[in-house]
Structures are given as structure tokens and as C-alpha cells.
Automatic annotation (TrEMBL):
Key words of the record: Hydrolase
InterPro entries: HAD-like_hydrolase_sf (IPR050155), HAD-like_sf (IPR036412), HAD-SF_hydro_IA (IPR006439), HAD_2 (IPR041492), HAD_sf (IPR023214), PGP-like_dom2 (IPR023198)
Lineage: Bacteria, Pseudomonadati, Pseudomonadota, Gammaproteobacteria, Moraxellales
UniProt signal peptide: none
Protein known as: HAD-IA family hydrolase
GO molecular function, one term: hydrolase activity
Length: 222
């Protein structure tokens, strides 16, 4: 069977959207408010997980504070992230892929409310045929959100590519036998991403754009 590319699924934070710094800052703010120790590295390491999983990993000893910490984080993030935007070159990359007939989707650890807010902020609802947020399915690296995207689009895993900046993204794709591309300009290092055998690891958006165009060209050559 020909493995032609029909669908590209993107993570959001750290892959399309330059928001990692603000996420870390907001987690640090919430941790301090509730007198919980938290390093920058620890805060950064959990980006990509759903919020309940974030609380379980970062604050395992105070489950009674999870709801309050997460609400504090969310409030601080919304109030201070209005300047966050797509990485340079992302808009052009998405438009080019769509013009080539590739379907686009999002699979993110954000909540549905948070994802809808940034989709509106970037005026990009119409770019994506489907989006899935961790609050409405299972958190990465469980592959359920990818399985749901494939079911909705009617596309097989082998005809899709997952693009992400964390091990959670690539492990999720590996768990459903979906080809994957890592990006090293977000959260996790190339060494961490390489453990999940991606097609490529892109160091910036321009490199990612080229890797994806190469995959489109492979499709056209089949």
C-alpha cells in the first residue's frame, strides 16, 4: 500500500505557538502562591501534558491543592500571554500545506477553552479540519486523541504525520504507529526526541517547512 501523506497533525505550544516561556512563568507564579517548590526545568518538562497530569507530576504531595493551583496558573497565563504568537514562518507553512491539499489538525495538551482562545487569537479556526484538546480526551502520550482525529478525518495512521516538540508528542504517535517529526526549538532536546525514531528533527520552522514539503513531494511522486 502506498504511504501517501494526507494529514499533518501539529502540537500547539512550543511547536506552532511561541508560548513556552509564559507557561513556565505562570506555573512558577502559581507554585509560589501556594508555597510549592518548582524549578524552571521541572515546569518546562511537563509542557504537553493535560492540566490534571501536570498537577499530578509537579505537585504529587498536595492533591488537595491541585484545583486551586491550576486555576491560579490558568488565570495568570490568560492575563499575561496576550503577546504570545505563532513562531515566525508558521502561518506561511500552514497556508502552503493547505494549498497543497494536505489536511491540517491540532492535538494539544491545552484545554478546549484554552485552545479555542488561541485559535481565535491567531484567526486560524478555518485552517484545521479538526482539533483535539486534552480536556476532552486522554492526555498524551496516550494515542486516543490521534485515534479520534483519524476517525473523524477517515485517514489511516500511515498516511498522517504528527509534529511535536516533546517526547509526549512523539511517543503518542509511536503508540499508534504514526510517522512523526520532532522540532528542537520547543521543549525537549534532540537527544530526547530521537528516542522515538522520528522521520526528522527540525531545528527551526523553516527546516520543518522544508521537511514537510519533502514529504508532500514524496506523495506526489508515488
Amino acid at each position: 500500500m502506498n504511504k501517501t501523506l494526507e494529514l499533518v497533525i501539529f502540537d500547539w505550544d512550543g511547536t506552532l505557538f511561541d508560548s513556552v516561556g509564559q507557561i513556565v512563568q505562570s506555573l512558577q507564579f502559581a507554585a509560589k502562591e501556594y508555597q510549592q517548590p518548582l524549578t524552571d526545568d521541572a515546569a518546562k518538562s511537563i509542557i504537553g501534558l493535560g492540566l490534571p497530569e501536570v498537577a499530578q507530576v509537579l505537585f504529587p504531595d498536595v492533591p488537595e491543592l491541585h484545583a486551586d493551583i491550576l486555576q491560579c496558573y490558568a488565570t495568570h497565563y490568560v492575563e499575561n500571554s496576550k503577546g504570545d504568537a505563532w513562531f515566525e514562518g508558521v502561518a506561511e507553512m500552514l497556508q502552503t500545506l493547505k494549498a497543497e491539499g494536505i489536511k491540517l489538525a491540532v492535538a494539544t495538551g491545552k484545554s478546549r477553552k484554552g485552545l479555542d482562545r488561541v485559535l481565535s487569537q491567531t484567526q486560524s479556526h478555518e485552517l484545521f479540519v479538526v482539533t483535539r484538546a486534552a480536556s476532552e480526551t486522554k492526555s498524551k502520550p496516550d494515542p486516543l486523541m490521534l485515534a479520534e482525529i483519524l476517525r473523524i478525518t477517515g485517514i489511516n495512521a500511515e498516511n498522517a504525520i504528527m509534529v511535536g516538540d516533546t517526547s509526549y508528542d512523539l511517543e503518542m504517535a509511536q503508540n499508534i504507529a504514526m510517522p512523526r517529526i520532532g522540532v528542537s526549538y520547543g521543549v525537549h532536546t534532540p537527544e530526547t526526541l530521537a528516542q522515538f525514531h522520528p522521520i526528522a528533527i527540525a531545528e527551526d520552522v523553516a527546516s520543518l517547512h522544508q521537511v514537510l514539503l519533502n514529504q508532500v513531494n514524496l506523495k506526489q511522486a508515488v
